[in-house]
Request: fold
Amino acid sequence: MSKAEEKEKTENAEKHEWEPKIVGFLCRWCSYAGADLAGSSRIEYPPNVRVIRVPCSGRVNPLHVLRAFRKGADAVLVAGCHPGDCHYSEGNYYARRRLDVLKELLEFIGIEPERFRLEWCSASEARRFADVITEVTGQVKKLGPLNPKENKNG
Amino acid sequence: MDKSKNLRETAKTLLSEGAVKSIIGYKKGRFPFYLQPAIIKDPEEAASLVFTPLSRQNLVSFIKKAAKPVGVVVKGCDLRSLVDLLQEHQIGRGDVRIIGVTCAGVLKGDALEHDPRFKPAEIKDVVEDDGRIKVITSSGEFEMPEDSMMEKCRSCSVHAPYLYDDLIGGGEPGKAPGPPAYPGVEEIEKMTPGEKRAFWLDMFSRCIRCNACRQACPLCFCEECVMDEAKPRWVTAEVDPVENLFAHLIRIYHSAGRCVSCGECERACPVGIPLSLLYNKAAKEVNELFGYNPGVDPEAQPAMLTYRLEDPECKSCLGGRNL
Reply:
């Protein structure tokens, strides 16, 4: 194999290195604005998160989370306002209850706890948002793909 | 006291006095080793009602279809699902006459078929005698071992109903039950994520998506089920282990905080998927996290319809440890 070929091969391998897909449901009043602030403050975080804007973390139906996993997400993140700060007063309290139970169920069928996360993140916490995404991406990279769609054992 | 006789008398009185329009109970099936549900309207039909250790089915599932006010024969465990329907305003307390029956336990679906001591064709009757289950056959009487009872009966804390209008079988009225034992859940919890996935995908590769679990569930009362919904199509009818698992997860999640572990889904499953494990896991978490035990207090608010400020902080949150 010539040197040029070898170089091309390593480059290709690097290009095709597996990257986790993370679906992020962000509350439009806080976390979404936090993500926005992270962007405008030029804070870097991994580009693995696909953001879905929701009106409130309480809007996130556990069905949405299940659907995301079914459609190939390697991890799901739900981020909302800190308890007590909900724009609709109590949406995040409901979310906390629901998603706590969902997390336990996911764990019970073999989806690692690191793959699902509920997070509180306000509009000013751009740094925290970036740190959360970095942490989740790192954890999921270590776990490898979930991919329930193609891989029977995965 | 003969429960069947007691039940027939009560049913006849209720129907002839006009206290109820219909009564849901059990009657003899085509074979002596199973019973079938019966909805009766005529006082004369009351003579066909029975209650034996074969009264497995949870009759609360039929309440919505019966003419109101309706009398329903319930065991202590079935009563919990009725309480849940009362909580969720699916039936008014005035529309239902609770005919509670004390019950020592019911037989598993296949307990009689696989007993080596007698043939199913020889069975004449199955009776409860002082807490033990006896099978009367043409070749003699046999006592059934304890493990021939349904799983839920072996850890039962509601042998006598705690809420009723009529009590069949006498004895002391029951106490409101504590949380059930959730049998088998811990063994699964101990597995690694890979083992769990392999286990459940293996189980759900058997599922044929007949939806018998949903039909049997006393708490599945939605007019349109998310499993049938076409727009958006949350789950397809595709028979595939992963799709099956996710379809079931939706149902399991939906009954978290409502499911009373009556075991009807597992009993109805034609391919023997241990569905109770998943439902019990959800019930266990709701109980541990929020201290809520479904189907006990008709006035209580189901766990997922409410919240408390002091609910435990989500385990996945960074919570206290700020980054």
Summary: The interface with chain B takes residues 62-63, 66-67, 69-70, 83, 90, 93-94, 96-105, 107-113, 116-120, 128, 131-132, 135, 148-149, 152-154 of chain A (CB under 8 Å). Chain A has one domain: 20-140.
